Amino acid sequence: MMDANEREVYRAAIHGDRDAFEMIIRTHSRVLFAIAYGILQSREEAEDAVQDALVKAWKSRWRVRDPEKFPAWLPLSEETIEIAEPEPADATALDRQLHSALAALPELHRSALTLRYFEEMDYQSIEKLLGISNGALRGILGRALASMRKQLRPALASLE
């Protein structure tokens, strides 16, 4: 749950306060980068994608009605997803499935998963970043992986 202070920052950002927006970016850029890197598999491309996504997010921030939804909207705004999608020419069916499976996860699960497996962050850092306890993180990762496996099963089966 977002505290009143955070909610204020998000509200300010949505209403065009650049400092508030920058503050949010600093908080979320790692996660955004992790997601982009997980999809694009290239540090440079991921950095570019995140930059583009942030510019677009700033321009279309007014679409977010509810400040609570802002963090989830950042990595999930259609622009971000469009940018993060590999070019159709080299997007394998599996890439696309992986992308939609990731997008279908609750934000906390997606963040935990990307930080752990794409950023290869240790449990303690992830817990601190996401504000959760150790027991909770293990459970979240377990559920997120199970959900990904379930979603990807058809795509993986078609590869065999």
Provide a compact summary of the structure.
The chain is mainly α.
Distance N terminus to C terminus?
A: 42 Å
**Overall 3D form:** globular
Number of separate helices: 9
User: If you average the pLDDT, what whole number results?
Assistant: 75
Which consecutive residue ranges, at least 5 long each, have pLDDT under 50? 78-89
| Helical content band | over 70%
Strand content: under 5%
H and E string: HHHHHHHHH
Task: Kindly state the number of beta strands.
Answer: 0
Task: Give a structural overview.
With 160 residues, this protein is an all-alpha fold. The radius of gyration is 16 Å and the shape is globular. About 8% of the residues have low confidence.
Task: Please write out the topology.
Blueprint: H1 4-14, H2 18-40, H3 43-59, H4 70-76, H5 78-84, H6 93-104, H7 107-118, H8 123-130, H9 134-159
Helix pairs in contact: 1-2, 2-3, 2-7, 3-5, 6-9, 7-9
